[in-house]
Write a structure and sequence with these properties.
Number of helices: 0
Strand content: over 45%
Order of helices and strands: EEEEEEEEEEEEEEE
Radius of gyration: 17 Å
Number of strands: 15
Strand order of the largest sheet: 8-7-6-5-4-3-2-1-15-14-13-12-11
């Protein structure tokens, strides 16, 4: 996939929140679910879910992605991703996941080791690798949001560090939760470019990019805190 900037008309708001808003992460109490229907052009493409639990002082985020394109029963593209993230005091403790992409499987495991994170994964070319990453690194699972001064994130498909640039695009009105909501748009540029939206509580609210000549669009189905 080679995501590009989205092509979507937006509505400018007559007010704006402080620039720091984009850096406010969601703080799930446990029991919330972020659920997206995913569209490729105007066609249904699959689902993307993030489910939150609390276990003592740990926050657990379970991610499940199921994308499929085909002609009737014949599948021409299939993408699946499952991962479990464990967080404590706002920092990643561990991540374990696997991605099925273009017929190949890519397992990832990352564990806190002292002040840092040790990550093991498989690169797109099939090469296994181990990376030592800073302890404050954030996974590329999008649900937490990204600060504007961020320069590297943990690639949850391959376990390596991905150089990124984050731009706050301001407040917009988007389709979500069965209607429209106000959300802040962030553009993440790296080995991919994707636009992300976050609601007033910091929860992930939308996503759009281009892949293989098709516009991919995420529509959130309900407010996670409602």
């Amino acid at each position: 996939m080679k995501p590009l900037a989205i092509l979507v008309s937006t509505i400018a708001l007559s007010f704006s929140l402080p620039a720091a808003y984009a850096a406010i992460p969601a703080d799930p109490a446990g029991g919330e679910t972020i659920q997206f229907n995913v569209y490729r052009g105007n066609s249904s493409f699959g689902t993307h879910e993030v489910r939150f639990q609390r276990n003592g002082d740990e926050l657990i985020a379970e991610v499940s992605v199921r994308l499929r394109a085909g002609f009737g029963p014949v599948t021409v593209f299939r993408y699946e991703h499952d991962s479990v993230e464990r967080w404590r005091d706002g920092q990643l403790v561990a991540l374990e996941g696997e991605t099925l992409k273009d017929g190949s499987r890519f397992p990832v495991e990352a564990v806190r080791n002292g002040a840092g994170i040790v990550s093991e994964g498989v690169l797109p070319e099939g090469e296994q690798h181990t990376a030592e990453l800073p302890g404050d690194i954030i996974p590329s699972s999008h649900w937490r949001g990204y600060e504007e001064d961020l320069r590297r994130i943990l690639n949850t498909e391959h376990g390596d560090a991905m150089e990124v640039s984050i731009t706050d695009m301001g407040m917009e009105e988007i389709e979500a939760d069965g209607g429209t909501i106000q959300a802040r748009r962030i553009r993440l540029e790296g080995t991919l470019t994707v636009d992300l939206w976050y609601d007033e509580n910091g929860f992930w609210a939308g996503c759009e990019f281009e892949a293989r000549g098709q516009r991919i669009r995420y529509v959130r189905q309900a407010n996670p805190v409602a």
